[in-house]
Amino acid sequence: MEQVTKKPVVRLSGMNGNVFVLLGACSTALRRAGQGDQANELRQKVFAAGSYDEALQLMMQYVDVR
Predict the structure, then answer these.
(1) DSSP label at residue 59
(2) Rounded CA gap, 49 and 56, in Å?
(3) Rounded to an integer, what distance in angstroms lies between the CA atom of residue 57 and that of residue 61?
(4) Collapsed DSSP state (helix, strand, coil) of residue 58
(5) Beta-bridge mates of residue 9
(6) What distance lies between CA 45 and its chain's CA centroid?
(7) In whole angstroms, what is the distance from residue 30 CA to residue 40 CA?
């Protein structure tokens, strides 16, 4: 049976909208949830993203944004 990893919850409302601030919050949440590999993978994908919207969509794939 495949193990399903629960997405950590990140509350981004009220935060500075800078993509690096948001990425930092998402990466921290992933690391605290024991998902350091996913945090590194997310960082690489966001740095390669072609737009702000693409970066946000990537973050929402890895964390539960509230």
Answers:
(1) H
(2) 9
(3) 6
(4) helix
(5) 64
(6) 10
(7) 9
CA 50 to chain centre: 16
* Residue 55 to residue 61: CA distance in whole angstroms: 10
Contact predicate 46/22, CB 8 Å: no
What is the C-alpha to C-alpha distance for residues 60 and 11, in angstroms, rounded to an integer? 11
pLDDT tens for the chain, residues 1 to 66: 556 679 999 998 888 899 999 999 999 999 999 999 999 999 999 999 999 999 999 999 999 998
Whether 26 contacts 33, CB under 8 Å = no
Could you give the 3-state DSSP secondary structure of residue 36? helix
Are the CB atoms for 64 and 7 separated by under 8 Å? yes
Going from N- to C-terminal start, the domains of the chain cover 18-65
